[in-house]
Amino acid sequence: MQPCDIPAFTGSTNADLVVYTERLIASLRMCNADKSALREWAQ
Asked: Where does the source fall among the domains of life (predicted)?
């Protein structure tokens, strides 16, 4: 299982922060899906 990536913040505006937040949420969702698949496999 691969570690979950943490996107780097490279912006400088509030709009950049919104985009970064969306990237963080996407990363968390992928990580959760990875863990869910592992739980299903273990059962």
From this structure: Bacteria
Per-residue pLDDT of the chain (43 residues; tens, 9 = 90+): 677 889 999 999 999 999 999 999 999 998 888 888 888 889 8
Contact 7, 23 (CB under 8 A): yes
CB distance 1 to 34 below 8 Å? yes
d(C-alpha 3, C-alpha 10), whole Å:
21
Instruction: For residue 7, count other CB atoms closer than 10 A to its CB.
Output: 13
Contacts of 20 (CB under 8 A, 6+ apart): 7, 9, 11
